[in-house]
């Protein structure tokens, strides 16, 4: 039994160690899973950022394309204006052909062309400068937004780390609570088993007390019945004594008869514990003289007093002893 107890304790310790190792592995696995989830979340965030950057790049490209289209439109408008002006100038020239030309129209047209080209160049420079300013502002916004995004991502990572540590601590607290609850359940089961054992002992003791009470009641009843029998036997003995005394008063005053009576009659005292069965037999004694003519020969009555002694334990009779005591009673018979 001691070896099996030691083996059981060893197995229990091994099971506890395996449970602790399993808990540690489970915690590590959960930490790795949480890290994987964090990495996946970071990758998803980076994908979202990449998508946002691609969308921003596409928007910027669309804006550049729109600006290029606007520039082309402006160029076309300028060309149309130049063409219209040239047409107007051509009409004027056509109108003024008849007059004497005092001004060199080619030079004028060249100057106008130079002016318009200078205007176009300035407009182009202005548009390029505005475009460059817009691009610089957008790049600055992208840089600031990327920096803010990196700062937010760092804060998110730190918050996730703190959340993971808090989750690990919470799981440790939950495991501690579960272990305490299991310990409490074991203690309750142990004490309930002890209470059931104590209750069983109490029930057994109550049953034994009930049996003892029943046995005492039976013994009291038997004792009362024995006392009744004793009282009845004492009454019978008193009656027998009264009869003997009355017989002794009736007998004549003869010494020989008195001697015979003293030699043949022995008084006896009977005590009965449970029951008494008197058996009376009349017999004529031998060698008894006739003391007087008025009375016949003396007759003896044999009385047997049975005393039964019983030893009772737990309501059962262990031993029984019966004692029979004979007693002769003499009385004269009338002629």
Automatic annotation (TrEMBL):
Write out the transmembrane intervals.
none
Which key words tag this protein in UniProt?
Coiled coil, Intermediate filament
Q: Which domain of life is it from?
A: Eukaryota
> IF rod domain: which residues?
1-251
The residues forming a coiled coil are 50-88, 149-236
**An example Gene Ontology CC term for this record:** intermediate filament
By sequence similarity, the record places it as follows: Belongs to the intermediate filament family.
Name the chain's protein. Answer: Keratin, type I cytoskeletal 39
> What species does this protein belong to?
Daubentonia madagascariensis (Aye-aye)
């Amino acid at each position: 039994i001691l070896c099996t107890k030691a083996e059981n304790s060893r197995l229990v310790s091994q099971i506890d160690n395996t449970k602790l190792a399993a808990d540690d592995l489970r915690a590590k696995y959960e930490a790795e899973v949480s890290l994987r989830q964090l990495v996946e979340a970071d990758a998803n965030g980076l994908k979202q950022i990449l998508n946002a950057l691609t969308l921003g790049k596409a928007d910027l490209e669309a804006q550049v394309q729109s600006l290029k289209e606007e520039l082309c439109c402006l160029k076309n408008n300028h060309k149309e204006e130049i063409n219209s002006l040239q047409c107007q100038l051509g009409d004027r020239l056509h109108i003024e052909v008849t007059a004497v030309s005092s001004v060199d129209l080619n030079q004028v047209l060249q100057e106008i062309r130079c002016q318009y080209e200078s205007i176009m160049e300035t407009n182009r420079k202005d548009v390029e400068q505005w475009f460059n300013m817009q691009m610089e502002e957008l790049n600055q916004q992208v840089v600031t937004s990327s920096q803010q995004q990196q700062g937010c991502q760092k804060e998110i990572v730190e918050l996730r780390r703190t959340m993971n540590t808090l989750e690990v601590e919470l799981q440790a607290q939950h495991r501690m609570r579960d272990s305490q609850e299991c310990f409490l359940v074991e203690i309750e089961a142990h004490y309930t088993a002890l209470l059931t054992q104590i209750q069983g002992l109490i029930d057994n003791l109550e049953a034994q007390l009930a049996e003892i009470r029943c046995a005492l009641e039976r013994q009291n009843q038997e004792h009362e019945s024995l006392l009744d029998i004793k009282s009845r036997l004492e009454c019978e003995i008193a009656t027998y004594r009264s009869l003997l005394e009355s017989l002794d008063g009736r007998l004549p005053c003869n010494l020989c008869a008195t001697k015979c009576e003293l030699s043949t009659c022995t008084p006896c005292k009977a005590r009965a514990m449970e029951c008494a069965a008197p058996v009376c037999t009349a017999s004529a004694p031998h060698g008894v003289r006739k003391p007087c003519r008025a009375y016949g020969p003396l007759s003896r009555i044999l009385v047997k007093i049975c005393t039964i002694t019983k030893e009772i334990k737990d309501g059962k009779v262990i031993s029984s002893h019966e004692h029979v005591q004979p007693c002769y009673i003499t009385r004269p018979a009338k002629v």
